[in-house]
Amino acid sequence: IYILAVESSCDETAASVVRNGREVLSNVIYSQIDLHTLYGGVVPEIASRKHIEKINQVIEKALSDAGITLQQVTAVAVTYGPGLVGALLVGVSAAKAIAFAAGKPLVGVHHIEGHISANYIENKDLVPPFICLVVSGGHSHLVVVKDYGEYEIIGRTRDDAAGEAFDKVARAIGLGYPGGPKIDRVSREGNPDAVVFPRAKVDGSTYDFSFSGLKSAVLNYLNSCEMKGIEICQADVAASFQKAVIDVLVGHSMEAVSQYHLKKFAIAGGVASNSALRAAFEEACRKNGLEFYHPSPIYCTDNAAMIGVAGYYEYIKGTRHGWDLNAVPNLKLGERIS
Ligand code: ATP
Ligand code: MG
Ligand code: FE
To answer: How far apart are CA 22 and CA 125, in angstroms?
Structure first.
């Protein structure tokens, strides 16, 4: 079974061919990061226009890199939410047109289901059930993956997503956009215990996250340093902030695995490529006797291979979408809209 997958939910135009669910034959990603760096963040209108410009050549390259023709494709999978509506529409329209013209079935995929499924690519032995921490630009979810396509969200953020916090703090300390990778890099030179930032607990839920308080604490610290005329050490602030985020993520996750009696734990999403976070989870999982799974960095940030994997499992379960498939910007995980 060959899945041609398309992803355009944010600022990556991507297409991929995946064979039998876990074998990536091609993974083409056109990143618009340079374009948006100028504005300090993703500008939705610019993203949509660039997707339109790039989508066809990205899809053609995915097919040619895989060495297959459109006729050999079994089904076309596409991200239809959540994400930026204009950006999503470009991928959805392209996928519908191609599937319709070639007479192939269409499978709509949830973007976060894609992020989680990225773990199947390099871990051929990973099968549900397991717990997955999804930390991306727009989401911070603790998810029980009960089966393929079956999810229970047991924890979520009450305010900012983890990636969003990285991006905002990076901007505040003058690192610029995109913040995650930059904080990751400068933190290696910094002392994570230099500044003590709060580890927020959320009332009423063991597994929910809150990162806006931490962001404010960093801003307050920067302001007070400025008022006192103290020069801040960028690397120390970055490392201390990063440590505070990681401590909370690891704490909640380990509590969840023990509560649910699962022995397998995975991470997913852009922030999952953070080197200190990976090291911290490696350590925590070893201590707790858990099997730890994580995608390579290229499969953590947005890509279409992960959509191809999720699309495969949806396809063999019988999921099909009609030609009226629409972009759903606030699609919920596990929710089905045709
Ligand atoms: P979502 O998947 O929630 O819709 P998105 O697709 O924009 O959002 P991703 O592409 O999964 O998000 O991840 C991008 C986020 O990951 C950004 O916030 C970015 O700063 C963060 N990120 C990327 N690399 C790293 C890193 N090495 N360390 C920390 N954060 C990182
Ligand atoms: Mg992106
Ligand atoms: Fe994403």
So the answer is: 11
Q: What CA–CA distances, in Å, run from 331 to 34, 45, 82, 216, 241?
A: 28, 20, 5, 29, 31
pTM listed for this prediction = 0.97
Q: Which atom of ligand 1 lies nearest, measured to the CA of 166?
A: 20
Distance from residue 48's CA to the centre of ligand 1 (Å): 19
102-135 pLDDT, tens digit each: 999 999 999 999 999 999 999 999 999 999 999 9
Ligand that lies nearest to the alpha carbon of residue 301, given by its number in the listed order: 1
This complex has an ipTM of: 0.98
Overall size of the chain counted in residues: 338
Ligand nearest to the CA of 274: 1
Task: Judge whether residue 178 has pLDDT over 90.
Answer: no
Q: Which residues pair with 110 in a beta bridge?
A: 81
The whole-number pLDDT of residue 338 equals 64
